[in-house]
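tool=predict chain=A
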Amino acid sequence: MTESAVRNWVRRHLAKVLGVAPDEIAFDRTLGHYGLDSVDAVLMAGEMEEALRIEIDPASFLQYENFEQMIAALESENALGETVA
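tool=predict ok
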């Protein structure tokens, strides 16, 4: 799993949930910026885990200032290194 795969998934998922074009999703924003809450974070984390086969703590969506930091943290924790096929 690559960082760009995570970015693409997040962008497509948020665009679908919000009913906007994918290019309207900015990674320097938070879930709150898009009007989403902790319930949305839990749901998104579960879907992301299933789709990308990586483990994600839903709190990470709220812990970081923006998606950019969250994705970077996942990468540094080596969560994006290997996946289960």
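The helical segments are 3-18, 38-52, 60-63, 67-76. The CA atoms of residues 49 and 55 lie 6 Å apart.
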